[in-house]
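Standup notes
- DV: blocked on the single-chain target, sequence here:
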Amino acid sequence: MREFIVKDGEQDKRIDAYLSEKNEDISRVAIQRLIEHQKILVNGKKIKSSYKVQENDKITLEEEKPKEISLKAQNIPLEIIYEDNDIIAVNKPKGMVVHPANGNPDGTLVNAIMAICKDSLSGIGGEIRPGIVHRLDKDTSGIIVIAKNDKAHINLSEQIKNHEVKKTYIALVRGIVKANEATINMPIGRSEKDRKKMAVTKKGKEAITHFKVLKRYPEENCTLLEVNIETGRTHQIRVHLAQIGHPCIGDEVYSSGKNKWGIKGQALHAKSLEFKHPITGEKMKLEAPIIGNLGTGLKFPNMD
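- DV (later): unblocked, structure below
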């Protein structure tokens, strides 16, 4: 159950718009459905999606529990980067969904990890997300770490929350980026035009992305970037790079997606994670090699 009190200056907004701004993980359509099912009440009373909130309104939101999905271990090949009794890190391939959901009941990273780890996975993520501490988009490849027990899960989650985990990505973007390095500091929130997308918006949450040029390809009109993120907003790198006019090659959501190599989905790879081992405290840097130069025939520089 979530509760909200409408503050001065927030009144006269439609309740579905108000709540979607407060909860970027819930779409406006989902909020409208919750209102229809009387899972959202204002001052204890049912309302319509068109209701305009007033100062001091008390709003309660009862979230829908995810539908039960029968999880099964599946013998799906995965490149294991590191494994011990507490964590396992793998190189997630492009096109693989991290955890089951409606429309993706199996064939996910979780299904594959269950086959590798058997019963040794943290249960904090819930039945459909055992061991999952952080995620990567379906078409973003690269390193992801999974917790094998609750103690490791809690510690890793705290490190991520406190910005103590350094995440480095490699992105191939459209156009020639002029600056050798730069920082993008633009707030990101749910798009008001398309609730399935994120966007740079004044109403969004702080989002900071740093990048530096690894190589420019003038003949191909693209640039290879190394990217670090201070914050972890949904689609942050993709939104920021598109906002400055250099979307990831192949990104079908934040650009046309058309490219000479026929890449489907963003050319984005999670190269490395730097963090402290959740149990021993040892400093770790785990790296996942890029497979197939992000789907291009380009010769990438040595990035070791």
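- Follow-up: The first helix runs from residue 15 to 22.
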